[in-house]
Amino acid sequence: MPLAGAAAARFVAARFAPGARVLALAGPGNNGGDALVAATRLHEMGYDLRVVLPSGAQSLPADAALAHAGWIAAGGATSRLLTPDAAPDLVIDGLFGIGLNRPLGPDWQALVDRVNAWNAPVLALDVPSGIDADTGAALGRPIRARWTLSFIGRARGLTLADATAGAVGESHLETLGVTLPQSGAGA
Question: Which superkingdom (predicted)?
């Protein structure tokens, strides 16, 4: 998680200058933890961060809870609601990652629809929220990312069906120093 979050922060820093208004959406799993680490690093680099954690900190697994504690220790705050502020310069989508396999619930769908209505650039972590990482199927109306940053390896679904119909944007891979075996390679 620290490596993925730091990689996401570097990705943002290569495209946006310090001071840019960044909204990090942190979901209830490890994808949310990646977004929280990225938010902390960007905050330390001088970006104007806002973090929305719709499920609240109590829903986070242990590693993501540590990322949340790091965000708070760095002087950050979270909100459970997306306020009616103007569109940010960038949205980091850390709502759902590779584990989503059911349709977005009504509250999550409303949040995704609101972000999509802004037409602000979105960096999706692992997989745009609302896309099944295995099948590429849309599980509702997915977030429309300009970039999708995968960690270690790309989810199979990013190359299939609905995922390629405007939700993924440019697909980028950050290996985090891990080398995966080639598929079909003999022992």
Answer: Bacteria
Tokens of 99: 């584990």
Alpha-carbon distance of 187 to 117, in angstroms, equals 50
| pTM: predicted TM-score of the whole model, two decimal places | 0.90
Phi, psi dihedrals of residue 73, rounded to the nearest 5° = -60, -30
Q: How far is CA 133 from CA 11, 141, 160, in A?
A: 21, 15, 9
Q: Residue 76's closest CA among 38, 27, 130, 126?
A: 38
Angle formed by the axes of helices 62-73 and 30-44, nearest 10°: 20
pLDDT per residue over 52-81, tens digit each?
999 999 989 999 999 999 999 999 999 998
Q: What are phi and psi of 105, to 5 degrees?
A: -70, 165
Give the CATH number, domain containing residue 69: 3.40.50.10260
111-138 pLDDT, tens digit per residue, is 999 999 999 999 999 999 999 998 888 8
What is the CB-side half-sphere exposure of residue 104 using CA atoms within 13 A?
24
pLDDT, the chain, mean: 90
The verdict on residue 129 lying in a domain is yes
Instruction: Report the domain count for the chain.
Output: 1
Task: Assess if residue 71 is contained within a domain.
Answer: yes
Nearest to 127 by CA among 160, 88, 154, 90: 154
